[in-house]
Every structure is written in C-alpha cells, then in structure tokens.
Specification:
Layout: E1 2-6, E2 15-19, E3 29-39, H1 41-48, E4 65-73, E5 85-89, E6 103-107, E7 112-113, H2 120-124, H3 127-140, E8 148-151, H4 157-168, E9 172-177, H5 180-189, E10 193-196, H6 202-210, E11 215-220, H7 225-233, E12 234-242, H8 252-256, E13 260-263, H9 268-272, H10 276-291, E14 299-305, H11 309-318, E15 324-328
Helix pairs in contact: 3-4, 3-10
The structure holds NADP nicotinamide-adenine-dinucleotide phosphate.
Length: 333
C-alpha cells in the first residue's frame, strides 16, 4: 500500500511517500481504508522526535486520528461490517501504525460510527480532541449545570470541543482567546464570556468574571506557566484539569483552596491496551451530539492531501490555522 512515512525525526520535510506492507487483519481488529486524518500537536511533536519511545518504529506512519471505511473484519468482531463508515483515534504510537496510509489496522473497540452529518474530513478532525475534552470535563471534573467553567485556549483543537461540551452540560463558559477574530469564533461556539489573555491579567478577570470567588472548574490546555494561573483561578473546592505534564509547580494555591488537580492522558488506552472500549463509547456519544447539532468541529479553511502532510504540519505550527488542520487521502478513491 501507499503511505507517507518518516525515516528520521526532524522538520516538516522529513515526510515522504513510499510503499509499506498492507496490514493483515487480526482478531479483535478491523482494517480501515483511510479517507482522512487531522494534525494534532502530538503528531508534530512525534515528527520532531520528542516522544521517541512511544512513536511507531521507522519507517514510521504517524497520525492517530482517522476517518474511513471498514475494509476487513477480524475474528471475534461482531460490531463492524465491511463498508461501515467509522472514525477514531487509533494509531501512530507503539506497534500501531498511524493513519497516513491507504489502510490502517485498528482495535475495533476504539472505533465509533462516523457522524452522519459530517464528511470524512470533518469526522477526522474530532477523535483525539473530543476524547480529551470529554475525559477532562465529563469523566474527571464531572461538570454540572450552573458551574462557572474556564477553558483556556477556547479556539484550539481541544478547547473548541470543550466549550461545546461544557455548554451542553449547562455550565457558564468563560474562555481565553488572543484576538477579536478568535473571540467571535468562541462566542459562536457558545462561550458566554471572553478573556483576552494578552491584555487582562488573572487577578483582573477573576474579579470581573467571578467577583473574586474563582471558577468551579478550570480546564488547562496549555500547561507550563498557565497551570500556575489555573490553580490561582479556581474557587474554594474548585478543580483544575490539565492535559500537559512535564513542568514543576508550587501547589500551594491549590492547597489553600482545598482544590483538586486532575490529569488526562488520552493516549493511555492506546498505549496500554486498557480502557479502549471507553474511547469507542465516547465517540459514539460525540457522533450523536454532532448529528443532533449540539457539537461541530472547527475545520481550518486550508484543505491538504496526505502528500502535503509536511505543509499541513507547517500550517499547525505556524499558529495561523483557525480550527483543526485536516488531510484527505489521495488513495481513498
Ligand atoms: N494529555 C493529553 O491527553 C492531550 C490531549 C490533547 C492535546 N494535548 C496537548 O494539549 C495542547 C493543546 O492541544 P490543542 O490540540 O488544543 O492545540 P492547538 O489546536 O494548537 O490549540 C492551542 C490553543 O492555545 C491557545 N493559546 C496559546 N497560548 C495561550 C495562552 N498563553 N493562554 C491561552 N491560550 C493560549 C492558542 O490560541 P491563541 O492564538 O488564542 O493563543 C490555541 O488556540 C498541546 O500541547 C497538546 O499536545 C494533550
């Protein structure tokens, strides 16, 4: 089969097209004919070599997000049939080849029915970010109606789904953005209040948005210095959910407020084999929400082919994309 691979870590130029062995279907798995994928920051970090121990071995086929059609079904799989349209976040790590190829072997439990309302491109924008936002707000923080929820980076990949999930749960949603253009998009996605983080320091927006009381839940999609801001921004008994580790922090702002810090690593089921069915279930619910018009993916205006994957990574890394950067397979037919 055809694939876009990397055989060394580096810049966007490391991708090239080559023949790769078509995976054979195996028990508990399905073979997906790939139609589309999307770029997540994780894919760019893997390409650069930041996650070498968990990256698919060379010649590495990257990208977790996939939308496509079931082409073959392994023993013991009753949920899927050939021709089913599916989506999921299912590879590019460990022994699991990613989506930048004609075919992808996928654990059947990780998949869900593609939202009927979306084309393949739209569906491919969702899996990684939707699972992450779901695990953060619904599984960890268990957000409830009427809570004040602050979402950092509300027009980012994870943030734009988080805004919509929080609104669906009845929360009052505050979000940080960098520009008026992004502010308008965040409002359109359902955000109640905007915070222009480059202009307004945390002390000021805490006062303006909560009268100084703090937010019930802060979803931190940035880590680093923003995690310190997030801990400062919670109310008494408030919760912070972070999706980035790797930095050191003084926990006293959290301690003083009886606060809770949750972490989400959405790749864990894919890496460990535990909890994969939960991802399939989340994506079935997300598909239903999409079909009912509750959630929609924000997709960048630029359309890329798999053969332009380097440019697509460049688009994400430029910070100029508005929404998820999506790629369509030239081999899907
Ligand atoms: N642990 C996990 O399971 C997990 C899962 C998914 C993602 N992640 C990680 O989470 C991060 C976000 O992922 P993503 O897909 O949402 O990335 P993304 O699409 O690049 O979005 C990041 C957003 O953050 C905003 N931003 C940058 N600096 C900011 C600041 N100081 N304050 C507030 N907003 C700021 C950017 O918009 P502006 O132009 O408005 O600044 C951008 O919209 C990445 O590092 C990714 O690797 C982790």
């Amino acid at each position: 089969m055809k694939a876009m691979v990397i055989e060394k870590f580096g810049g966007v130029e490391v991708f090239h097209e080559r023949e790769a062995p078509k995976p054979a279907v195996k028990a508990g798995h399905v073979l997906v004919k790939v139609a589309a994928t999307s770029v997540n920051p994780l894919d760019a970090k893997m390409r650069q070599g930041y996650f070498q121990p968990i990256t698919h071995p060379f010649p590495a086929i990257l990208h977790g997000d996939v939308a496509g059609v079931v082409a073959d079904v392994g023993e013991g799989v009753s949920r899927w049939e050939v021709s089913d349209e599916v989506y999921g976040c299912a590879g590019g790590v460990g022994s699991y080849q990613g989506a930048l190829a004609e075919y992808m072997l996928v654990d059947a439990e990780l998949l869900a029915h593609k939202p009927k309302k979306l084309p393949m491109r739209g569906a491919a924008a969702l899996p990684l970010v939707a699972i992450t936002a779901w695990e953060a707000l619904i599984d960890r923080a268990k957000i409830r109606e009427g809570q004040n929820v602050l979402i950092h980076g509300g027009v980012g990949g994870v943030g734009h789904i988080a805004i919509q999930l929080a609104k669906w749960k009845g929360a009052k949603v505050f979000t940080t953005v960098s520009s008026e253009e992004k502010g308008a998009i965040a409002k359109d996605l359902g955000a109640d209040e905007l915070i222009y983080y480059k202009k307004e320091p945390v002390e000021e927006y805490l006062q303006r948005c909560t009268g100084g009381a703090g937010f019930d839940v802060v979803f931190d999609t940035l880590g680093g210095a923003t995690l310190d801001v997030s801990m400062q921004a919670i109310a008494h008994f408030g919760q912070v959910v972070s999706i980035l580790g790797g930095s050191t922090h003084d926990l006293s702002p959290l301690f003083k407020k009886n606060g809770t810090l949750h972490m989400v690593v959405m790749l864990a089921p894919l890496l460990s084999g535990n909890g994969r069915a939960a991802h399939g279930k989340i994506l079935e619910t997300v598909a239903d929400l999409v079909n009912r018009g509750v959630i929609r993916p924000l997709v960048d205006e630029r359309d890329f082919s798999f053969r332009q994957v380097g440019e697509a990574h460049g688009r994400l890394e430029s910070g100029k994309a508005l929404g998820k950067v999506v790629l369509s397979s030239p081999w899907h037919g």
